[in-house]
Specification:
By secondary structure, the chain is α/β, with parallel strands linked by helices. It contains 7 helices and 5 strands; from the N terminus they run E-H-E-H-E-H-E-H-E-H-H-H. Strand 1, helix 1 and strand 2 (about 35-40) form a beta-alpha-beta unit.
C-alpha cells in the first residue's frame, strides 16, 4: 500500500507574505518522518474568483475551471497542514474563498495547522477548526503558533526565518504524530467504506 500523502497549504497570496517560509519548514519535518509523503500546495497557483457558484461542490459539479483544478489537487491527499496568517482575528480571505470552492475533498480527512500572527494565529486557527468540522474533516488538537514577536522582525528584515525556526521544532513531533495517526485512521475507514459500497453494488 502506498504511503499517505499530506498537503501543506500556503494560504496567503500577498507578494510580501511570510507563510511560504514556515510552509517549507513544516514540509521538511513531514518529509523527514519517512512514513508519509508531502507536497506544498500554494494558493497563488490557483487564482480563484470569489465564490459565485449556485452551490458548493458538495451539491453540484463546480462551474469554474480553476476551482475544478483546485478540487482535483486537494483530492490527491489523505490529510492536510494549513499554514495560515491571522487577518483581523480570522483566516485569510483567500483561504476562506478557496475552502468555499472545495468542500468534498476535505470530508473525513485529518487537518493540522501552523499559524502566525500577534497571538500566534490562535484565533484564526480556532475559526479554521470550526470550518473544518463543518466540512466533515477531523481537525487535530495540536498546532504550531508563531507569534508576532517572532515573525514581525523577519518581515521587517531584522531577523531571518533560519535564525528563528528552531524555536518551534519542539512543537512539531506531537502535532505530526497526531496528524499522521488520524490521517491513517480516516484513510483506512474511507477505504473500508469504499470496499463495502463496491461489494454492495
Amino acid at each position: 500500500m502506498s504511503k499517505p500523502k499530506i498537503a501543506v497549504i500556503i494560504s496567503s497570496i500577498r507578494p510580501t507574505r511570510f507563510g511560504d517560509k514556515p510552509a517549507s519548514w513544516i514540509a521538511g519535518h513531514v518529509a523527514a518522518r519517512g512514513d508519509v509523503d508531502v507536497e506544498i500546495v500554494d494558493l497563488k497557483d490557483y487564482p480563484l474568483p470569489l465564490f459565485d457558484a449556485a452551490a458548493s461542490d458538495f451539491w453540484m459539479p463546480t462551474p469554474n475551471e480553476i476551482a475544478a483544478k483546485w478540487q482535483a489537487k486537494l483530492n490527491e491527499f489523505d490529510g492536510y497542514i494549513v499554514v495560515t496568517a491571522e487577518y483581523n482575528r480570522s483566516i485569510t480571505g483567500a483561504l476562506k474563498n478557496a475552502i468555499d470552492w472545495a468542500y468534498k475533498p476535505f470530508i473525513k480527512k485529518a487537518v493540522a495547522f501552523v499559524g502566525y500572527g500577534s497571538v500566534g494565529g490562535a484565533r484564526a486557527i480556532e475559526h479554521l477548526r470550526n470550518i473544518m468540522v463543518e466540512l466533515q474533516a477531523v481537525p487535530v488538537r495540536h498546532a504550531v503558533h508563531i507569534g508576532g514577536s517572532d515573525f514581525i522582525p523577519i518581515m521587517m528584515g531584522q531577523k531571518s526565518w533560519d535564525e528563528t525556526k528552531g524555536n518551534f521544532d519542539f512543537f512539531v513531533p506531537e502535532m505530526l504524530d497526531n496528524l499522521v495517526w488520524w490521517t491513517n485512521a480516516t484513510r483506512n475507514a474511507r477505504q473500508a467504506d469504499a470496499a463495502a459500497a463496491a461489494k454492495a453494488a
